[in-house]
Amino acid sequence: MASCSGCGPGYRSPLDAMKGPREEIVYLPCIYRNTNTLKPDYLATVDVDPKSSTYCQVIHRLPMPNLCDELHHSGWNACSSCFGDASRKRNRLILPSLISSRIYVVDVETNPRAPQIHKIVEPVDLFWKCGLANPHTTHCLGNGQVMISCLGDPSGNGKGGFVLLDGQTFDVVGNWEHPGEAAPFGYDFWYQPQHNVMISTEWGAPKALANGFDPADVAGGHYGSCLHVWNWDTHRKLQTIDLGKDGGIPLEVRFLHDPSATEGYVGCALSGSVFRFYKTLEGDWAAESVISIPSKKVEGWTLPEMPGLITDILISLDDRFLYFSNWLHGDIRQYDITDRRKPRLVGQLFLGGSIVSDGPVKVLQDREKQPDPRIIQGRRVPGGPQMLQLSLDGLRLYVTTSLYSGWDKQFYPDMIKEGSVMMQIDVDSVNGGLSLNENFLVDFGKEPDGPVLAHEVRYPGGDCTSDIWL
Q1: Which residues cross the membrane (predicted)?
Q2: Long-range CB contacts (within 8 A, 24+) of 406-413
């Protein structure tokens, strides 16, 4: 963790963060729900230091005390939004459970290479105090609290509200939003205090997505297509932006890292689109589609057309490049976003996916050749590229292949049996370009208790998807 005399956690600015130390270990939640192993999920600590004797190995596993939690996205008790507060430390990793609605608070300070559970927030606290369930995204706030978005209510219906935790005790304080103002669906969020705004996104109703994806649920109104604009100071919902048919299932939302910026991007899974959202001259907010990945006409798949399924996006700390993964098509893309309204494709790499040349799916009409399967150190990459994390200096992109166990089981059943992997992509951060590091592979199919699904990557000192600057 970088710090200086009199300063709090994180870095003074995004450009300062780019000068931070190289990552040596990373944390990943590993999920056993929906696999053939009846064991608790766990937090894996992985050595990513090329100089280490345990490079590319899981060096510690912290099992949760319960079954079928579905650990998903993690966050911090403090980040760069607390940089001005010398009393704060980034010493607790917050691990919400998407299915059980538990929240685990993990001590990463006592021994960063062997974290331990500090506290468990039980589901009943979310249910009774907030009327919320299925926690997803965690962000620390500059005031010392921790905020977690939720997907639904305790009955499994869609409800996009936000839980506040005390940043010291981690007790549930209550809702961030006002009574009756929760969004119809919830998922991700990002705030920008200089402009007194927060933007949140929508996935779907938990009871619709819990065990797989049914296209009829889209037609039935159980999945979202909107962005929600909130007043950061008053917590009031100001505006709902319906992205329409080209904005189905807007997932990860990213403001530019520059805290004075009035724009950002959101990836829409179902429609294969990236929208730019921005503040208008009138002072409200709008969105426009700036990237579109066409669905592919196919044979041998569940539907006659296969969307790319954009499932994760991130922006480099210098706000120069946008990255995203097409989980079904199997490629990662790098765009130069110097011209914010006209992203330019500068890098593309296929890493598995559903249209590999030796698979059952035949692409009928496409300019792109069906890619060959990706083999790394003798291991065929299962699934497709999903969660992304970029090194602070922008030179290394870490990729995992599991999306969510219920959808993994449906779309990539082999990954359930074989486990997921973590890969590393070398990035040309000058001209653009992506190349696979053939010397890096973390094979979660070889775990002691059986193959497991590894999800999101976090660095102990913070990263470009968890830190927000004020």
Answers
A1: none
A2: 406/34, 406/209, 406/210, 406/211, 406/212, 407/209, 407/212, 407/213, 408/34, 408/383, 408/453, 409/34, 409/212, 410/212, 410/213, 411/213, 411/327, 411/328, 411/354, 411/383, 412/354, 412/382, 412/383, 412/384
CA dist 97 and 446 (Å) reads: 24
Rounded to whole angstroms, the Cα distance separating 96 from 5 reads 32
pLDDT of amino acid 135 = 98
**Domain range summary for the chain, segments of one domain joined by +:** 14-454
Q: What residue has token string 């509200």?
A: 161
| Chain-centre distance for alpha carbon 287 | 21
Tokens of 117: 């559970």
Measured CA to CA, the distance from residue 352 to residue 383 in angstroms comes to 6
Backbone torsion region of residue 379, taken as left when φ is above 0, otherwise alpha when ψ lies between -120 and 50, otherwise beta: beta
d(CA 451, CA 449): 7
412-432 residues labelled b (16+ CB within 10 A) or e (exposed): beebbebbbbbbbbebebeeb
Amino acid in position 437? N
CB 98 within 8 A of CB 151: yes
Beta bridge partners of 119: 105
Instruction: Kindly tell me the sign of the dihedral angle through the C-alpha atoms of 56, 62, 66, 72.
Output: negative
pLDDT digits (tens, 9 = 90+) for 138-176: 999 989 999 999 999 999 999 999 999 999 999 999 999
Both tokens assigned to 450: 């059986």
Q: Looking at the domain 14-454, which fold is it?
A: Methylamine Dehydrogenase; Chain H (2.130.10)
pTM: 0.96
Other CB atoms closer than 10 Å to residue 401's CB: what's the count?
Answer: 29
Give the pLDDT band of residue 108 (cuts 50, 70, 90).
Answer: very high
- Take residue 36 and report the two structure tokens written for it: 């053939």
